[in-house]
């Protein structure tokens, strides 16, 4: 308990919490946008889609299936060379954020595809019959109609990204996961470990509740 109070007074606990939130926010911002684009592309280029294109769908589907199942700790090591090229370093916060965004993009892409496929084809056909082009149909019909399920999908992705940040210490980054391992688990201090766990649970619960409420309101429209 004394060690926990010392870490709180030193600001290390707060610093780790802020680091986790920053990592997740950036990864969800970058990965969320890229995932939405890829997910929409998968939806509209599949057979029978608005812009059916088998080669494009096959390539995108292959990439998502290739990267999505890779455990995050292995992906960190595999993407280190690419992180050095893009971010200028293969370790630290920038490398972690790059890998988080990369993983989030492909994970979210599949969630977006699955949720958009629940949109009634009749609604899309009605928009096309009224003269709406493919882009307009996507932006004004497909995405808005699937917004409720998309919110739930992004909520799930947020929680998954929080889970990924626990591997931050592998490349010298921080966050609550690394904080719990460094000051709690490795120093046999359950107070520190469980304090970090509780903060993570609170963050996840708040986001889950917010996501559920927002999705419920959108689905009732």
UniProtKB/TrEMBL annotation:
The chain crosses the membrane at residues 20-44, 56-83, 95-112, 151-171, 191-215. Signal peptide: none annotated. Keywords: Cell membrane, Membrane, Transmembrane, Transmembrane helix, Transport. It comes from the Bacteria. It is found in: Cell membrane. Residues 17-215 form the ABC transmembrane type-1 domain. GO terms for biological process: D-methionine transmembrane transport. It is a multi-pass membrane protein. GO terms for cellular component: plasma membrane. PROSITE patterns: ABC_TM1 (PS50928). Belongs to the binding-protein-dependent transport system permease family. This is ABC transporter permease.
